[in-house]
Amino acid sequence: MKKVNKNSNYSEQFDKLLKNRFALSMILDLYALAMTKRQFEILSLRLNEDLSVNEIAKNLKISRQSVYEHIAAGIMKISNFEKKLHLLETLITFNKKMSRSGIGQNSAQKNMLSELESVLSVIG
Question: Is residue 78 a contact partner of residue 28, using CB atoms and an 8 Å limit?
Protein backbone atom coordinates (compact mmCIF):
# COMPACT_ATOMS: atom_id res chain seq x y z
CA MET A 1 0.00 0.00 0.00
CA LYS A 2 1.24 3.46 -0.87
CA LYS A 3 2.53 5.51 2.06
CA VAL A 4 0.31 8.44 2.93
CA ASN A 5 1.49 11.41 4.91
CA LYS A 6 -0.93 12.10 7.73
CA ASN A 7 -1.09 15.70 6.54
CA SER A 8 -1.94 14.64 3.01
CA ASN A 9 -4.96 15.72 1.02
CA TYR A 10 -6.87 12.58 2.08
CA SER A 11 -6.33 13.29 5.74
CA GLU A 12 -7.60 16.83 5.23
CA GLN A 13 -10.58 15.49 3.28
CA PHE A 14 -11.36 13.04 6.05
CA ASP A 15 -11.21 15.79 8.67
CA LYS A 16 -13.75 17.77 6.62
CA LEU A 17 -15.90 14.69 6.22
CA LEU A 18 -15.87 13.97 9.97
CA LYS A 19 -17.95 17.10 10.48
CA ASN A 20 -20.73 15.15 8.73
CA ARG A 21 -20.28 11.89 10.62
CA PHE A 22 -23.85 10.63 10.21
CA ALA A 23 -23.90 11.17 6.46
CA LEU A 24 -20.45 9.66 6.06
CA SER A 25 -21.52 6.62 8.05
CA MET A 26 -24.43 6.15 5.62
CA ILE A 27 -22.07 6.45 2.68
CA LEU A 28 -19.70 3.95 4.25
CA ASP A 29 -22.56 1.46 4.30
CA LEU A 30 -23.45 2.26 0.68
CA TYR A 31 -19.92 1.56 -0.52
CA ALA A 32 -18.87 -1.12 1.97
CA LEU A 33 -18.32 -3.71 -0.74
CA ALA A 34 -16.13 -1.33 -2.72
CA MET A 35 -13.32 -1.48 -0.17
CA THR A 36 -11.33 -4.13 1.60
CA LYS A 37 -12.56 -5.60 4.86
CA ARG A 38 -9.71 -3.84 6.72
CA GLN A 39 -10.47 -0.45 5.15
CA PHE A 40 -14.12 -0.81 6.08
CA GLU A 41 -13.21 -1.93 9.60
CA ILE A 42 -10.92 1.05 10.19
CA LEU A 43 -13.32 3.60 8.71
CA SER A 44 -16.14 2.11 10.75
CA LEU A 45 -14.10 2.30 13.96
CA ARG A 46 -13.24 5.92 13.20
CA LEU A 47 -16.77 6.97 12.26
CA ASN A 48 -19.15 4.76 14.18
CA GLU A 49 -17.10 4.10 17.31
CA ASP A 50 -15.44 7.55 17.29
CA LEU A 51 -12.01 6.04 17.98
CA SER A 52 -8.93 8.14 17.34
CA VAL A 53 -6.20 7.05 14.96
CA ASN A 54 -4.05 6.18 17.99
CA GLU A 55 -6.80 4.06 19.53
CA ILE A 56 -7.43 2.21 16.28
CA ALA A 57 -3.72 1.54 15.81
CA LYS A 58 -3.41 0.23 19.36
CA ASN A 59 -6.55 -1.94 19.17
CA LEU A 60 -5.60 -3.48 15.82
CA LYS A 61 -1.89 -3.68 16.65
CA ILE A 62 -0.87 -1.73 13.56
CA SER A 63 0.99 1.53 13.07
CA ARG A 64 -0.73 4.89 12.97
CA GLN A 65 0.67 5.27 9.46
CA SER A 66 -1.14 2.10 8.45
CA VAL A 67 -4.40 3.48 9.86
CA TYR A 68 -3.96 6.68 7.83
CA GLU A 69 -3.20 4.62 4.71
CA HIS A 70 -6.33 2.51 5.13
CA ILE A 71 -8.45 5.61 5.71
CA ALA A 72 -7.00 7.30 2.63
CA ALA A 73 -7.50 4.21 0.47
CA GLY A 74 -11.07 3.77 1.70
CA ILE A 75 -11.96 7.42 1.04
CA MET A 76 -10.37 7.15 -2.40
CA LYS A 77 -12.45 4.07 -3.23
CA ILE A 78 -15.63 5.73 -2.00
CA SER A 79 -14.83 8.80 -4.11
CA ASN A 80 -14.02 6.75 -7.21
CA PHE A 81 -17.16 4.63 -6.92
CA GLU A 82 -19.32 7.70 -6.29
CA LYS A 83 -17.99 9.27 -9.48
CA LYS A 84 -19.02 6.13 -11.38
CA LEU A 85 -22.26 5.13 -9.65
CA HIS A 86 -23.64 8.42 -8.29
CA LEU A 87 -25.40 6.67 -5.40
CA LEU A 88 -24.99 9.61 -3.05
CA GLU A 89 -26.09 12.06 -5.71
CA THR A 90 -29.17 9.90 -6.36
CA LEU A 91 -29.93 9.75 -2.63
CA ILE A 92 -29.73 13.54 -2.38
CA THR A 93 -32.01 14.00 -5.41
CA PHE A 94 -34.48 11.50 -3.95
CA ASN A 95 -34.55 13.31 -0.59
CA LYS A 96 -35.06 16.68 -2.30
CA LYS A 97 -38.01 15.31 -4.29
CA MET A 98 -39.54 13.85 -1.14
CA SER A 99 -39.11 17.17 0.64
CA ARG A 100 -40.72 19.10 -2.24
CA SER A 101 -43.68 16.71 -2.16
CA GLY A 102 -44.19 17.43 1.54
CA ILE A 103 -42.65 14.22 2.81
CA GLY A 104 -39.73 14.45 5.20
CA GLN A 105 -39.72 18.11 6.00
CA ASN A 106 -38.60 17.89 9.61
CA SER A 107 -35.38 19.52 10.72
CA ALA A 108 -33.51 16.23 11.22
CA GLN A 109 -34.16 15.22 7.62
CA LYS A 110 -33.17 18.66 6.36
CA ASN A 111 -29.95 18.43 8.37
CA MET A 112 -29.22 14.98 6.95
CA LEU A 113 -29.73 16.28 3.41
CA SER A 114 -27.39 19.17 4.15
CA GLU A 115 -24.77 16.74 5.52
CA LEU A 116 -25.08 14.51 2.47
CA GLU A 117 -24.59 17.47 0.15
CA SER A 118 -21.57 18.58 2.15
CA VAL A 119 -20.00 15.11 1.94
CA LEU A 120 -20.67 14.96 -1.80
CA SER A 121 -18.91 18.30 -2.27
CA VAL A 122 -15.78 16.84 -0.65
CA ILE A 123 -15.67 13.39 -2.25
CA GLY A 124 -17.46 14.08 -5.54
Answer: yes
- Give the CATH number for residue 92: 1.10.10.10
Residue 75: CA atoms inside 13 Å, Cβ hemisphere, count?
26
Letter for the amino acid at 83? K
Q: How far apart are CA 118 and CA 12, in angstroms?
A: 14
Enclosing domain of residue 112: 9-123
Task: Give the CB-side neighbour count of residue 31, counting CA atoms within 13 A.
Answer: 26
Cα–Cα distance measured from residue 25 to residue 8, given in angstroms and rounded to the nearest whole number: 22
Q: What is the mean pLDDT of residues 61-80?
A: 92
Residue among 35, 45, 23, 5 nearest 122 (CA) = 23
The pLDDT tens digits for 33-56 are: 989 999 999 999 998 898 999 999
Instruction: Report how far apart the first and last C-alpha atoms of the chain are (Å, whole number).
Output: 23
- DSSP single-letter state for residue 101: T
3 part of a folded domain:
no
